[in-house]
Amino acid sequence: MIRTSISKVIAAAIVVTVLQAPARSQVTNVRDDGADIDVSWDGILAWGSWPIRESRHAAADRDWPEENSDLVTAQGEDESEVVGDAHNDNDSESSIGGCVYDFEILSGFHLANDINNRGQIVASSGLDGFLIDDGVLTLIAVPGAFGTRPTNINENGEIIGFYAFGDPSSGAPTLGFHRDRYGSFTTIEFPGAHSTYLWGLNNRGDIVGYFVPAPPAPPFPAPFLLNQHGEFTMLDIPGSLAAVAFGINDRGTINGGFLDAGFTFQGYLLQKGMIFTVNFPGAIGTDVARTNNKGELVGTHSIANPDAADSSYLRSKSGVLSEFAFPGAVVTLLSSINERGDLSGHFFDGPMSPPQAFIARCGNDD
Q1: Which CA distances in Å does 323 have to 65, 94, 192, 276, 340?
Q2: Is 30 within the bounds of a domain?
Q3: What residues have CB less than 8 Å from 9, skipping those under 6 apart?
């Protein structure tokens, strides 16, 4: 069962060995055309039927605790350009532009991985990926692959994600993929890596993700940027033992999480060479799942109990914070936010329930 964010999985896996911060490098001409794609990922069981949408209506207007001014701290200059001023505003109508959310359950799907501004959704059901476009379903799966996970779709209809031809839990490598709007797949691998995971794609064609080194190097993830010209660059997150990149917006702001020397997982924003750490007040771990072009972001955080499930939060461009939960859910994990403030993610109804995909569409409280 998937009850925790990837940040907690990574932090739990790195308890004894220390991974040195990666050096910056660049490789050109790394895209290989014509290869099939699929997703290697933590095991998701194949449940469900074709999706039938159910609607629930709720307002996301919960205020955060008062002591949240330390949520975002900068390691650089001009912090406000990237993240604004984090604060708690009790008079704010909502954390994201006064949204009142209409919740849509995607029945039969377990993960809603992304929703773009056109309302196109990439989701997962069992080990297969799907594109949901105005009610029309398109299978996103590589023939012969063990599983496919699409993670991001941009405004051009391009999709990225990752796949494997064998069970990753048995050591099969994971490969990244890019699917163009016409359905043509390209496999993407970080040079020399055992596995490559693609998570973020902007409208310029820039991609971010992370790779796991090949043996005998320690199997700890390191983030990278693959720009629109096909050049790989490792991302240097100062003070990190391991790090991941989950998203990149059209301004070039990269978001993700890293494990620091004290074995605490922190979220980060990276823009123009400046690192801004993101920490949920009182949490032992925080990540940033996605940031849009307005500077609004979503992510997850972990409380002090290491066995407890993660929770989700929203942060507006003005720095107003709100905790976010699917109505009645035990656990809610957000994965993305678009320019309108629409959200994607999944939730759990109970301690033994499977994950359930949902979309939360932003409306105004008139």
Answers
A1: 10, 11, 40, 20, 18
A2: no
A3: 42
Domain range holding 274? 6-12+35-364
Measured distance CA(325)–CA(346) in Å, rounded = 10
**Side chain identity, residue 268:** Y
252-276 residue pLDDT tens: 999 999 999 988 899 999 999 999 9
Q: Does residue 49 contact residue 108 with C-beta atoms inside 8 Å?
A: yes
144 in any annotated domain: yes
29 is a domain residue? no
Domain with residue 356: its CATH number is: 2.120.10.30
β-pair partners for 68: none
* Number of Cα atoms under 13 Å in the Cβ half of residue 214: 8
Of residues 194, 152, 156, 163, the one with CA closest to residue 36? 163
* Residue 3: strand, helix, or coil: coil
Q: Does the pLDDT value for residue 280 go beyond 50?
A: yes
Number of independent structural domains in the chain: 1
Please answer whether residues 113 and 123 qualify as being in contact, where contact means their C-beta atoms are separated by less than 8 angstroms.
yes
Alpha helices in the chain (DSSP H): 6-13, 79-83
Reference 366, options 99, 103, 102; nearest CA is 99
Q: Answer yes or no: is 106 within a domain.
A: yes
Between CA 61 and CA 59 the distance in angstroms is 6
According to DSSP, the β-strands at 222-226 and 232-234 are antiparallel
State the alpha helices, DSSP H only, in 104-224.
Answer: none
Q: Are 208 and 199 in contact (CB under 8 A)?
A: yes
DSSP reduced 3-state for 13:
helix
Number of residues that this document lists for the chain: 366
Q: What is the pTM of this model?
A: 0.79
Q: How far apart are CA 30 and CA 284, in angstroms?
A: 37
Cα 236 from chain centre: 19
Q: How confident is the model at residue 74 (pLDDT cuts 50, 70, 90)?
A: very low
